[in-house]
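Example record for the data management plan.
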Amino acid sequence: MTAAAPSPRCRACVRSSGGPIRCKCSRPRGTEAGVRSRGWLKIQDGCDEHCTFCATTLARGANRSRPIPELVAEARALSEHHAELVLTGVHIGTYGRDRGSGLGTWDSEVPTRAPNPEPRGPSLGRLLEALIAAVPRVRFRLSSIEATEVDDAIARLLIGAPRQLAAHLHAPLQSGSNRVLKRMGRHWYTADAYRARVEWLAARLPVFGLGADVIAGFPGETAADHRATLALIEALPFTYLHVFPYSARPGTAAMRLGEEVPARAVRDRASELRLLGDAKKEAYREKRKGQTGDGVVSGHAAGRLELLTEDYLSVYLPTAAWDGRARCEVTVD
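Corresponding structural encoding:
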């Protein structure tokens, strides 16, 4: 862990017995009492989509976004105790759509077009701009967002404000087969549109944590569909995967689709996806080894402190070596 430089305006910055500088001005209040410096800011609830495998819409209802001034006020309060705030919700990429109109959308028929038009009403990008302006010392992170809902405003912040918005997207893929995506009810993107947006961002970010959810063995998925998913994952710079063997949820439309995939095939496909995800994860960490990252304390166990980098890598430090700062430069090992 690299020692902080003292702030010229901070009288609390001291050097202890010739040791590292301990800078209280870079530490949110309340950090001294604990070792968890990430907080959560729920920006919306509900979802207007109807994925055939998902029961969330049945349980949570339609999209409901919280007002920007309310969220800014909550972020200011949370920033007193947290160095990172994670924006959460059910479908955060649709933030503001219930409060405005005329939002820009990704055109899946033009997969090579990189930029995504900004909305004319309230949006996640405008919320992020307001939060960063109000609480610039905090790092914000997006919890889970559809790749094709990363509009130009969000992209600009990811590229131009790495200290304020973590270079990390968890972008659900579910399948690399357009036929399966259609059966899933995921009408707002194609595999090509997903790939185009991710590649455009990856080409502009020096570090980029990229995760995805993938479902193995969705009803009607053929061996060719599975190979298409593997090929897309292999081609993109994923740094981790969350793989789920398909399981029917009561009341969902997928239960009525038929063409159930045999259980053994579901297990085998999930295993193959996990192996690929593990290989991508290891390759990315190896690439980052020896490089620095912007670490925020996320927890501790067995005498070690866990810090999370901007690109969602865990770096561990002996608790005894910690100088109490909630956020600091770390070296990926």
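Summary line stored alongside the record: The radius of gyration is 21 Å.
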